[in-house]
Design brief:
Order of helices and strands: EHEHHEEEHEEEHHEEHHHHHH
Structural class: alpha+beta
Number of helices: 12
Largest sheet: 8 strands, antiparallel
Number of strands: 10
Radius of gyration: 21 Å
Strand content: 15-25%
């Protein structure tokens, strides 16, 4: 059982079209041509999955809608920093997304629940093949797929898992683990990737090496290290959850969410993290990991605002967040 630690799996592929400069050197007219080519390649494919995608012009979205996409990890923060000449192809279930004109022409992403690296990669590979049938990707026989940033050369693949590591965080083992992981070609960061602080004890573990290694080898390496981290986290939890202070913190967290009238974003993530630990330890019953994992996204400021379908001040968000949590846990 890994879903007590692994929340989700993500596979991201970076691709560029052979006949166009990288986005940083591409004119506005060129970017529009790339958008049209990628959109057409998907819509004119013979795959039934094409009908599952919606086409979204980023400059047509309100800022809060764009930020919500980042919060749900469907797009990158960089992608929404400039909405001009950028577009998104997004599946109805929001499991598959294709960013057009981010750092590369195409950033194809697949997110799946739990620890499912091979399954997620299989879907990403099929979508990649589908696009490749109608597009000519920039590829070199020695370097592999050509990307704007040299760190993505080769497979162009970033595989990652979202981990809930409250016990390792509490024991201050994360910094030691991070140093060891870098030597193995992996990195561990906050939930939103590079430069982000971990909140709710959520961490993203991903591969760093894309050149000179196959997708299969990269995924296998990530799987092996993830399994070791799961074992370390569960071992640390056994010790941690014997503490009466931790048991009390878990009980109080659930009690607060059942009755509080105001809850801030950071407090909500901390409370949900504690309850998730309580579910894993068996202290809390009749609440699923899936419920907590969804709430960890829904309590985010922009996503909460979009859900309310009206502009909210910070104070109003805290009230709406508390009301949402009360309804779930009452």
């Amino acid at each position: 059982m890994s879903n007590n630690v692994v929340i989700s799996t993500r596979i991201r592929l970076a691709r560029n079209l052979k006949n166009y400069p990288f986005p940083c050197r591409l004119s506005e007219q060129g970017k529009e041509k790339v958008i049209e080519e990628v959109k057409t390649a998907l819509s004119e494919s013979n795959s039934p999955v094409a009908s599952e995608f919606s086409f979204i012009r980023m400059d047509k979205l309100a800022p809060v809608q764009s930020v919500s996409l980042v919060e749900k990890r469907l797009v990158s923060p960089e992608f929404v920093s400039d909405s001009n000449n950028r577009a998104l192809l997004l599946s109805k279930d929001e499991k598959f997304s294709i960013m057009i004109n981010e750092e590369d022409h195409i950033r194809l992403q697949v997110i799946s629940d739990g620890f499912s690296l091979e399954q997620a990669y299989d879907i990403a590979d099929k979508l990649d093949t589908l696009l490749d049938e109608n597009l000519e990707f920039a590829f070199d026989s020695k370097l592999g797929y050509l990307t704007q940033c040299p760190t993505n050369l080769g497979t162009g693949m970033r595989a990652s898992v979202m981990l809930h590591l409250p016990a390792l965080e509490k024991s201050r083992a994360i910094s030691r683990i991070a140093g060891s992981l870098s030597k193995l070609g992996l990195t561990i960061r906050g939930a939103y990737g590079e430069g982000t602080e971990p909140k709710g004890s959520l961490y993203q573990l991903s591969n760093q090496v894309t050149l000179g290694i196959s997708e299969k080898s990269a995924i296998e390496n990530l799987r092996n290290i993830t399994e070791q981290l799961i074992a370390q986290e569960n071992q640390a939890r056994e010790i941690l959850c014997k503490s009466i202070e931790i048991k009390d913190s878990i009980s109080r967290s659930l009690g607060i969410m059942k009755s509080a009238l105001i809850i801030s974003h950071d407090e909500a993530l901390k409370l949900l993290s504690n309850v998730r630990l309580g579910i894993a330890s068996g202290q809390i019953e009749n609440i699923s990991f899936d419920t907590i994992d969804k709430l960890m996204l829904e309590v985010e400021p922009a996503t909460l605002t979009v859900r309310q379908n009206r502009q909210l001040s910070a104070g109003e968000r805290d009230i709406a967040r508390a009301e949402m949590l009360r309804k779930v846990f009452e």
